[in-house]
């Protein structure tokens, strides 16, 4: 990721801070997925329906982290992963006797490990993990009943990944996977535990609400701006610490030096240095003001002079430009449908899950409270009876 994206925690943000936070904007949301929470029991953030569907093309890169990579649904990669470790059966006869390690020639069994983990996290947290796990299994089963095939689900998941990468300007799969890795998860785990439940809920609610053409057109008319594409440019840059250094590099470039080669050798922006300074496409609002103003004034193939910004001195080369595109309903119909269904999921998922749990006979034995033992009533207690009191006084 380049230093330039307009996150207040990024060096090239409007406030400008240290270089160490350059990855923060795009991975913050992924790190959200490691926090323990039952999101389906909470109110959905007002902006969630935009993120769940097709994001507005002119949304700044510093969009709400809740709308980034964590589609609204459920929980928490780390929590679910741990729940699976604790409860899922291996192919070892469906028992807890299977070994998960050995020590001094003796097996450490799954049951041993379960006991230790249970003791460490406590009953409440273990119950929450189990609830998350069972909820995901419930959603999976109901999606199958709604007609979602494995192949269709996988295709939808892959499409969501493409949207996320585009929204947050991940140039390659490796960049995206590195961001996930920094949050201690993998792309496959993220697809399975975060994106897939959203896809499954979308299928469930498509059958439940059965949207008509007029419903989708009305939704499009109301949210048309979300489906239009704003003007974008693609630029490369070389970032230097001082104006003198930048002017010297600019002189070399004007003398015929190759821009990408010089960027690799001299740029201090480690986020774009390896790619020859390439920043990919971005719209207005994504970069700091000084950089953005200079970049959007350039013509394709034109190079800027020295541009000063909060974190240094830039030389910018504009490599491509995309004009703004006004959408039509027919051109974005599939995206409209996905966004419409995601809004319905946001509005009704909590209630649906609670109802589905009751219908499926859901019972979490880790959170079940024991009924207190019945105590004798004062009227029936021998010590409280008048005759008993009289006998005792004799």
From TrEMBL:
Tell me yes or no: is Transmembrane among this UniProt entry's keywords. Answer: yes
Pfam families hit by this protein: Rotamase_2
Official protein name in the record? peptidylprolyl isomerase
Listed Basic and acidic residues bias regions = 16-29
Which stretches make up the PpiC domain? 230-320
What keywords would UniProt list here?
Isomerase, Membrane, Rotamase, Signal, Transmembrane, Transmembrane helix
Compositional bias (Low complexity): 372-394
Q: EC number(s) in its UniProt entry?
A: 5.2.1.8
Region (Disordered), start-end ranges:
1-36, 360-394
The record's InterPro entries line, in alphabetical order, gives: PPIase_dom_sf, PPIase_PpiC, PPIase_PpiC_CS, PrsA_foldase, Trigger_fact/SurA_dom_sf
User: What is a single molecular function from GO for this protein?
Assistant: peptidyl-prolyl cis-trans isomerase activity
Give the enzyme class: isomerase
Q: Which Gene3D superfamilies match?
A: 3.10.50.40, Porin chaperone SurA, peptide-binding domain
**What organism does the record attribute this protein to?**
Cohnella hashimotonis
* Record field: catalytic activity: [protein]-peptidylproline (omega=180) = [protein]-peptidylproline (omega=0)
Membrane-spanning intervals of the chain = 69-87
């Amino acid at each position: 990721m380049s230093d330039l994206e307009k996150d207040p925690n990024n060096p090239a943000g409007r406030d400008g801070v240290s270089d160490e936070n350059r990855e923060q904007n795009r991975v913050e949301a992924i790190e959200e997925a490691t926090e323990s929470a039952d999101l389906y029991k909470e109110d959905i953030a007002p902006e969630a329906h935009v993120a769940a569907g097709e994001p507005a093309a002119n949304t700044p890169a510093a969009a709400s982290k809740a709308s980034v990579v964590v589609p609204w649904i459920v929980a928490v990669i780390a929590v679910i992963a741990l729940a699976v470790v604790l409860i899922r059966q291996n192919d070892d006869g469906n028992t807890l006797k299977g070994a998960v390690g050995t020590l001094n020639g003796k097996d450490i069994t799954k049951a041993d490990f379960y006991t230790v983990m249970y003791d460490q996290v406590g009953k409440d947290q273990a119950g929450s993990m189990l609830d998350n796990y069972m909820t995901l299994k419930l959603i999976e089963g109901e999606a199958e009943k709604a007609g979602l095939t494995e192949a269709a689900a996988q295709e939808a998941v892959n499409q969501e990944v493409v949207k996320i990468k585009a929204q947050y300007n991940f140039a390659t799969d490796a960049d995206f996977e590195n961001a996930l890795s920094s949050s201690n998860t993998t792309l496959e785990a993220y697809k399975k535990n975060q994106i897939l439940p959203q896809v499954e809920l979308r299928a469930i609610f498509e059958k439940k609400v059965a949207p008509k053409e007029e419903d989708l057109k009305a939704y499009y008319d109301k949210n048309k701006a979300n489906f239009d594409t704003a003007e974008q440019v693609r630029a490369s840059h070389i970032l230097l610490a001082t104006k003198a250094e930048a002017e010297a590099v600019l002189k070399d470039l004007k003398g015929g030096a190759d821009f990408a080669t010089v960027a690799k050798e001299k740029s201090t922006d480690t986020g774009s240095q390896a790619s020859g300074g390439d920043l990919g496409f971005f719209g207005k609002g994504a970069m700091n003001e000084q950089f953005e103003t200079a970049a959007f004034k350039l013509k394709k193939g034109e190079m800027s002079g020295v541009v000063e910004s909060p974190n240094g001195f830039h030389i910018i080369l504009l490599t491509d430009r995309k004009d703004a595109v006004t959408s039509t309903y027919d051109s974005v119909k599939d995206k409209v449908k996905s966004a419409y269904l995601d809004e319905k999921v946001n509005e009704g998922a909590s209630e649906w899950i609670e109802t589905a749990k009751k219908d499926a006979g859901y019972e979490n034995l880790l959170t079940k409270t024991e009924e207190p033992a019945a105590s004798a009533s004062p009227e029936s207690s021998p010590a409280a009876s008048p005759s008993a009191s009289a006998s005792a006084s004799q």
